[in-house]
Amino acid sequence: MGIKLDSKIPSGPLADKWDNYKFDAKLINPANKRKFTVIVVGTGLAGASASATLAELGYNVLSFCIQDSPRRAHSIAAQGGINAAKNYPNDGDSVRRLFYDTVKGGDYRAREANVYRLAQVSNNIIDQMVSQGVPFAREYGGLLDNRSFGGSQVSRTFYARGQTGQQLLLGAYSGMMKMINKGKIKQFNRREMMDLVLVNGQARGIIVRDLVTGKIERYAADAVLMCTGGYGNVFYLSTNAKVSNGSAAWRCYKKGAAFANPCFTQIHPTCIPVHGDFQSKLTLMSESLRNDGRVWVPKKPNDPRKPADIPDEDRDYYLERVYPSFGNLAPRDVSSRQAKYRCDEGLGVGPTGRAVYLDFRDAIKRDGKETIAAKYGNLFEMYERITADNPYETPMMIYPAVHYTMGGLWVDYNLQSTIPGLHVLGEANFSDHGANRLGASALMQGLADGYFVIPYTLGNYFGSTKLEKVTTDHQAFVDAEAAVKQQTEKLLSIKGTRTVDDFHKALGHIMWEKVGMGRTEAGLKEAISGIRKLREEYWQDVNVLGGEDNFNVELHKATRVADFLELGELMALDALERNESCGGHFREEFQTADGEALRNDETFAHAAVWEYTGANSSPIRHKEELVFENVKLATRSYK
Amino acid sequence: MASGNMTLNLKIWRQKHGEAQGKLVDYKVNNVLPEMSFLEMIDVLNEQLVSKGEDAIAFDHDCREGICGMCSMMIDGKAHGGFKNTTTCQVHMRLYKDGDTIVVEPFRAQAFPVVKDLTVDRSALDGIMAAGGYTSANTGNAQDANSILIPKPIADEAMDAAACIGCGACVASCPNGSAMLFMGAKVSQLALLPQGKPEAPKRALNMVMTHDHLGFGNCTTHAECEATCPKGISIEHIARMNREYLKAAFTYFEKKRDE
Lengths: 639, 259
What we know:
The complex is a heterodimer of chains A (639) and B (259). By secondary structure, chain A is an alpha+beta fold. Chain A has helices at residues 17-24, 30-33, 45-57, 95-105, 112-131, 164-181, 247-254, 318-322, 332-344, 361-367, 369-387, 442-463, 475-494, 500-514, 521-541, 553-577, 601-604; strands at 37-41, 60-64, 82-83, 157-158, 185-188, 191-199, 202-210, 216-220, 223-226, 259-260, 265-271, 294-298, 315-316, 356-359, 396-405, 408-409, 422-424, 606-611, 620-625. In chain A, helix 3 runs parallel beside helix 12 and helix 5 packs across helix 12 (442-463). Chain A is globular. Chain B folds into two domains: 6-116, Beta-grasp domain (Ubiquitin-like (UB roll)), CATH 3.10.20; 122-251, Alpha-helical ferredoxin (Fumarate Reductase Iron-sulfur Protein, Chain B, domain 2). In chain B, helix 5 (180-192) packs across helix 8 (236-251).
């Protein structure tokens, strides 16, 4: 079979690659830009910033979002902040250090050139956002404030209270609104992408469902940008919004776009623990809380005392104990694993025993309640509303939860997938975070891709590609639409006995138990057979009520779960083939004596890139070898 | 505050589509736990309905942590249930007691037509934003982020306004169906910040005009919006918008506006 992986990394020294690229890139003159139409699927940070910027340049943009407004994309829920290498605090930061921290934080499974470019443009993002009226936190002198985040020893995180994602997204959205007003962006709300349309092997359009009327629609363009986020909801319970799904990316995979590192999943250490079967989602408590909160468990199992009554000598501040130099700011994968170990040892707290304490007692004593309230007030409120506990008086209880997927559609340096014209931005691609993403880096990447990378690389694509004129009556559109309608009819005709959510929960259970924080060969094999069985049952026994010609929420969920039931298997397979532990991928067979991830750089210093070969044959695993010329591969230590 | 399982009597607005006649339908939900969120309680009801072969209740929701602004609902006549600084997804069932009757309706306003059941179309809010809720800073033009100092109190006040999640509770609570709090928050945020000042007059004029054209009513200072806003946004921002508007109406020279 035929995919060829060429990462198209520009020549020259690392620091010059992006400049060289920009100089060599083909340009499109302003009068010609208006002849091109670009489809952008998704309006999160990546999609909104790309849509706005491409429209400003003169391209015609068709923007699609699944919610009732582009402002609601799930980027909005990011709390803690956005990294940039500004070095305003004068504490030793630089583009090189941000690059280094990100490669190391990703456990040496990311592509150097992409990460360096990300660090380079990070500063432009902050400038751009301030110019759009994003009210970042400031100091009394009027300068921007910074804080530190996990996996770094400098303060490079910019923030807007506990709602940085919201403010950045509204900034990017406002840019879109400006270009909608100018007629350069056409916005389509409540549309879900159902398939990608290829003409002559190039991405030339999409098929969408109007979620309100049920109508299937066709849209043609000269290129398609996938900005559809991650697939964490394959676990059913995650910090993702309910509508976040993997279907758009999955449909692209089945049309020939390779999928890279699907097993790289981020389990975030500080979430509110699960409390019941009815639970619909998990809520994150920002990692920024670990700047002042101390994580601990009682030294004695089942200590009956209230947490406030347990004296320090009976507490195990395990992150500070195990990682003295990073302490409570150890990276997410490491912190999550340590919480799991404590609970596995029987030291967990709370009604289920699957929780640890995050305690602000000392910070409140040191800085006063007001200072802590100014920093985290809204998070404390959110916590109290959900749990009815007051974190000013009693420690929070937290536990890891699925949060982000580092894996995604494979892209080259241009952010182009293995399908010409199909570009993938933000969390939907695989490129920058390796096997573990550092806190405050997702916002950075989404905006870097949309504001500062795609405007150059898409121009280069248009300038160097011959595109024939394509309209939506092309046979490829007719066929793709027919396939979508056929799937819909199939789902509606089953009329089985189990609800869609019931299947989704069953899948989530398999994924969390076997493809979650600790993975084993045996467990992954069980996961694969379990998912296959579940998928067969799904297509025989799911109950999707209602018709296709109306606002049918059950049908919307049903198509997403159908895709998750395939994607979950690929995740398990990828995890099974990667015989090492790295970042968020922890294979229990491969660990050091003290329980840290044991990488195997000899055999696995590559991205695993999967090619779809049909419903009844196994996917092919390709490799993109990762070359580290600027960072020395080392055992990642935060001790 | 409740503990243990509860049984609740719900009266929920059912309406097949925008043009259909709607009505309140009675449902009984058993086994409601205090730690469930309001939306999880409706999830449980929907699972029961689907199992019985009935159409699930359509309602808007997404992040379920109070930030996306997607969830709506009038609960017992109050937007988001009327709890302080709370969205519907953050309402927990411990606030109710066994045997309670709860009436659930969609947000109602001239500018928010019903789509189905509890789902309404709030795209008119985007229309207001498109009329001027931005700075015209194209990507790539920005100077260094620290080159303009912004006093902390100003930045904080702008942030207070910027916290709006665009849910439309202000509109649904207002007897006039006005979006003045929503709009005032954006006008105020950008008027406070140096980056927004150059376009402040034009912004105020265009947004207010568009607001009126889209079918939102005017403000008569009932302050229901402030009382119901899940992000605690103050009507002071409406006052600032009114000042911006008046100032612009008297002094702004480029009077060519789209009608």
